[in-house]
From TrEMBL:
<dbReference type="InterPro" id="IPR013099">
    <property type="entry name" value="K_chnl_dom"/>
</dbReference>
<keyword id="KW-0812">Transmembrane</keyword>
<keyword id="KW-0813">Transport</keyword>
<dbReference type="InterPro" id="IPR028325">
    <property type="entry name" value="VG_K_chnl"/>
</dbReference>
<keyword id="KW-1133">Transmembrane helix</keyword>
<feature type="transmembrane region" description="Helical">
    <location>
        <begin position="123"/>
        <end position="143"/>
    </location>
</feature>
<keyword id="KW-0472">Membrane</keyword>
<dbReference type="Pfam" id="PF07885">
    <property type="entry name" value="Ion_trans_2"/>
</dbReference>
<protein>
    <submittedName>
        <fullName>Potassium channel family protein</fullName>
    </submittedName>
</protein>
<keyword id="KW-0407">Ion channel</keyword>
<feature type="transmembrane region" description="Helical">
    <location>
        <begin position="185"/>
        <end position="211"/>
    </location>
</feature>
<dbReference type="GO" id="GO:0034220">
    <property type="term" value="P:monoatomic ion transmembrane transport"/>
</dbReference>
<keyword id="KW-0406">Ion transport</keyword>
<feature type="domain" description="Potassium channel">
    <location>
        <begin position="144"/>
        <end position="209"/>
    </location>
</feature>
Amino acid sequence: MTEPQASNAPSARVRWERVTQRPLLGLTVAFAVAYAAPIVDSSASRSLTSVCTAAEWTVWACFAVDHLVRLALTPRRRAFVRAHWPDLCAVVLPLLQPLRLLRLVSTLLLVGRRARMASQIRLTTYVAGSVIGLLMFGSLAVLSVERDAPHGNIRTLGDAVWWSFTTMTTVGYGDHAPTTGLGRMIAVGLMLSGIALLGVVTANIAAWFIARFDKDDDEERRRTEAIEALTAEVRALRAEVAALAARGDGPGTGRVPRG
């Protein structure tokens, strides 16, 4: 009796993911604040910038430790690495070239992977969070690389948010555009992400309509089947009445049917 219960118990890795999910989300908020503070406040002191940079690396280190612990708690480690190779790339990426933008990309990748593990997060909530996150971090990233560019025209946070919004929606008014190579790479990422999210939203809406139509079709099918069954019963009763009338035992004949 106890063996089936033990087999149904969650594994050590699953228990670890459940325990660390909320703390890692809290660290993500701390990373967002540390990343945004020196960019929004261009006159931030060197000490504040150093603290924010240390906070960013600390959050990345926490995600790296989380990945290593999950790997250690997994019996089939090769299969885990093959299935979670984006996590490994996100952990290794900042070590290849210690840029703040790489730490931003790696943290977003790790948060996205952990968020998809939570079954209570629905697709609509995930898409909305992705849109807000990309809009916010895309604006901050392009502002950090374009504000001091010699020929840049994205100088304020408002310009950066407007540019990110028009880029994600693939509108592209052209009043603001990145002039540096890194800024253009950010623009390409935002455009591809915007197209992907638009496709997800469109597919989600289409799936909702299809499910609604299928539900209506099922109800209509059940009504049709009920009507056909009732019609068959009425026909069977008519046939039985006709048979009784033919034998002279039916109503109107004056006879009493035999026991």
